[in-house]
Amino acid sequence: MTPQKITTAPLPYLLYTPKPAAKLPLILFLHGSGERGDDLDHVGDHGLSEILANLPEAALVVAPQCPANARWTDHLHALETILDAVIAEHPADKSRVYLTGLSLGGQGAWFLAARAPQRFAALVPVCGRSNPGAADRLKNLPTWTFHGADDNIVPLNESTKMVSALEAVGGTVKLTMYPGTGHNSWTRAYSEPELYMWLFAQSQTG
To answer: What's the total number of domains in the chain?
Structure first.
């Protein structure tokens, strides 16, 4: 699937659009730190190809690019603006908007979801620094997080402490931990068929 390159938004992004359909689920994908900058061709260097290869049904996929030397947490409003534009201009199913990200993007996913939990039907952060103080805001958002047990970039406890915080407030959350895996847990996570069966079953309308 060849993406459109959108460069007129607050952040540039890639947009993957399948053949027209009545209503399509939407995935917002946030890349890691190595893909930051001003070259959209790098947005798909990690994780995105696995997502595109494993989609169980047609979906809109939005993959913005974070500026160099910045974090997604600096651009949460811009991400919401992009979502609004895509939903307004394409046949997106607003009840099936899914948020995921890896590493720096995993952190961005935790924080964007906490800022606007009502926007999303499910959350999939992969090896990202977490936000336990926001657990109460996220307790009604189905969440599946992934992490490598031997991650020495973002330690496993970033995910385990977030899962514990969510469980403490009655959240719906699960953690998949890969023994013997370092920071790159995203290749395995985004290749899990069960992930997509679960993800695409989530809907804000039940």
So the answer is: 1
CATH number of the domain enclosing 22: 3.40.50.1820
pLDDT at 22: 77
The percent of residues above 90 in pLDDT, for the chain, comes to 94
Band the pLDDT of 206: cuts 50, 70, 90: low
Enumerate the β-bridge partners of residue 26. Answer: 60, 97
Report yes or no on 206 lying in a domain: no
Q: How confident is the model at residue 129 (pLDDT cuts 50, 70, 90)?
A: very high
Angle at 75 between CA 70 and CA 79, to 5 degrees: 135
197 CB-near residues (< 8 Å, 6+ apart): 56
Q: Which residues contact 156 (CB under 8 A, 6 or more apart)?
A: 147, 148, 149, 177
162-166 long-range Cβ contacts below 8 angstroms, 24+ apart: 162/110, 162/130, 162/131, 162/132, 162/135, 164/132, 165/132, 165/133, 165/135, 166/135, 166/138, 166/139
pLDDT at 19 exceeding the cut of 80: no
The single-letter code of the amino acid at 160 is T
Mean pLDDT of the chain: 96
pLDDT for 159 equals 98
The residue range of the domain holding 108 is 4-201
